[in-house]
Amino acid sequence: MTEGTCKKGFERVAETFAQNFAERGEIGASVCVTVNGETVVDLWGGIADPKMQAPWARDTVSVVFSCTKGATALCAHMLASRGKLDIDAPVSELWPEFAQHGKERVTTRMMLDHSAGVPALRAPMKSDGPYDWAYMTERLAAEEPFWVPGTRNGYHGFTFGWTVGEMVRRASGKSLGAFFRDEVAKPLGIDFWIGTPEAIEPRIAPVIAFPMRPEQAKTPFLIDLMTDKTSIPFLFFMNNGAWRQGGANSRAGHAAEIGAANGITNARGLAGMYAPLSTGGGKLVDQKTLSRMGEVSMASHDDATLRIPTRFAPGFMKSMDNRKRSIAATLWGEDSDSVILSSAAFGHVGAGGSLGFADPVAGMSFGYTMNQMGPGLLMNARGQKLVDAAYLSMGYRNKDGGVWVR
Questions:
Q1: Domains of the chain
Q2: What one-character DSSP code corresponds to residue 177?
Q3: Cα torsion 378, 382, 385, 389: sign
């Protein structure tokens, strides 16, 4: 069922990966862990395409949804490290058109930590809007913020790709996808794209939606989504043009550069991207920038979009323990709506439960991808138990206080 390699001392990760298939409904997946730059776990298995009964191979890749935000954020921080982007300067210095309707003082940091105030578009998006960069950036520049920028946070689940992505484009002179390809993916030798070439299509595992029943729509996020068409949850989730109608499994959806949602890679790609960040920054960022990347920049007990407590570093998720603070934990298990890492770790969850992160103190990077989406807004049992197994293998004791500790 599973293939790959697992170094001595990390057997519990391999055991958990196998258990995910046997006990937790995994269909196709990959997991990878590096420690001090060395790959200690590189596993894959299951079925990539149930319709074709195609196996998940070593080079199978899949859409990792919001794990893409980590890649987009990394591009912004690389430019900051090179002195080409000041994340605390007004965005209007590089993007004058954005300074409308009270957004004059928005900074790139606010875009990165989801406090910029434009988590969604109010007016309906045209069908091919997500595939039209100029259209999306023009709409966001003209959008009135949902709150005074910087005063609270609400997950910019889709718009992040163009707010931060446009800053990368203007600071670098390259499109987001081209910058990521040339400056991150190619130098690191990883299979990871924001804007995927057609030649990769045969290797992409189709996304399989989670079959949620209507009676399970009891969380604040789902209640807002189902009952209020003017709410941020509804606009974020539904006002996405063609992306909402199967874009994650379409050629157009793969080819576009959607820096919040359509990155395509596997666990090896996610762990490979974060590996330099777990060992001092490598050639990606300097030490000052790396330190800033992992520090909490914005947090809330009620995220305006996700309607759960959230904690963000600039562009990355921090450990979020919502086991006792989320209704989803009672519906689908305690791992739903949480992502529990160490206090030093930073990374990003993707819809359905994929995850990539760096832990600079442990010297560890981690990646997990799958085709079968799970419940909740953050992790679910499959991915979190792999994270738990990795930390236990590193000699960490418990996560009782909401972060993994030695």
A1: 59-381 (3.40.710.10)
A2: H
A3: negative
